[in-house]
From TrEMBL:
Organism placement in taxonomy: Eukaryota, Fungi, Dikarya, Basidiomycota, Agaricomycotina
E.C. designation(s): 4.3.2.9
Identification of the protein by name: gamma-glutamylcyclotransferase
Pfam families in alphabetical order: GGACT
Family matches, as InterPro entries: AIG2-like_dom, G-Glutamylcylcotransferase, GGCT-like, GGCT-like_sf
Annotated Gene3D superfamilies: Gamma-glutamyl cyclotransferase-like
Domain of life: Eukaryota
Keywords carried by this UniProt record: Lyase
Binding site for substrate: Y10, F11, G12, Y13, G14, S15, Y129
Organism: Agaricus bisporus var. burnettii (strain JB137-S8 / ATCC MYA-4627 / FGSC 10392)
């Protein structure tokens, strides 16, 4: 795991899959496509928000964005770094929508991921978070995140 800023690629796996929210939070962002984080698992943690933990055989899908340093500082505020989330850098496989649909292999890249290392137990989502996650799920599906992933992981916590 790298702890300094090696790239400007950000992997959003929770409500930041909602493209409009990312545009409001990080106005300089450039949407790049979808990505998969292998051997991690998505869940709602005790704070009521999305989190990921290492889990061999599982996977986390999300949207990737190129962000500026100014946008990253804004995201740090939204993610309440370091009180809630910690910044980590992990390799994700990036796909654009066309290539994912064709089953092509994606490109491996190092991406910033916010991880809550202290709250690792499953819980229920905050009421306000359900709406934002449903908007994020709609965008994720539209962009090509596998529906089977959404059903297996996200819908176990987020009602429609």
């Amino acid at each position: 795991m790298v702890t300094s800023r090696p790239s400007s690629i950000y992997f959003g796996y929770g409500s930041n899959m909602w493209i409009d929210q990312m545009d409001r939070r990080c106005p300089e962002n450039k949407y790049l496509g979808i990505a998969r984080l292998a051997d991690w698992k998505w869940f709602i943690c005790e704070k009521g928000y999305a989190n990921v933990v290492r889990s061999p055989g599982d996977e986390v899908w999300g949207l990737v964005y190129e962000i500026s340093e100014a946008d990253e500082q804004k995201l740090d505020g939204y993610e309440n770094v370091p009180d809630n989330y910690h910044k980590q850098y992990h390799t994700v496989t990036v796909f654009d929508k066309k290539h994912k649909a064709e089953g092509a292999a994606g490109a491996a890249t190092l991406a910033l991921i916010y991880v809550d290392v202290e709250r690792t137990k499953e819980s229920s989502p905050k009421t306000e978070y359900i709406y934002r996650m449903n908007m994020a799920i709609a965008d994720a599906l539209k962009e090509g995140v596998p529906e089977a992933y959404i059903k297996k992981y996200l819908r176990a916590f987020i009602p429609e």
